[in-house]
Design goal:
InterPro entries: DUF2196. By secondary structure, the protein is mostly beta strands. The chain has no helices and four strands. The protein has one domain: SH3 type barrels (Roll), CATH 2.30.30. Strands 1-2-3-4 form a four-stranded antiparallel barrel.
Length: 66
């Protein structure tokens, strides 16, 4: 499941995100969603979230559906 739709993402989900500094390489960072930062219902590059670890990036893949 991709991370372009805000309705699919909620706190507690495990996701893969791309951090700002990793956008060129496409390196993914896995973590658990703490906050959703994008207000619009969809975003072509992925919904921006803050992970429990404090990392901020755009969701590329939703891993679990807790």
């Amino acid at each position: 499941m991709n991370g372009q739709t805000r309705a699919n993402i909620r706190p507690g989900l495990e996701v893969d995100i791309v951090l700002k500094q990793d956008q060129r390489s496409g390196k993914l960072t896995r973590g658990v969603v703490k906050d959703i930062l994008t207000n619009s219902p969809t975003h072509p590059h992925g919904i921006k979230v803050r992970l429990v670890s404090g990392d901020v990036g755009r969701v590329k893949l939703i891993i679990s559906k807790n």
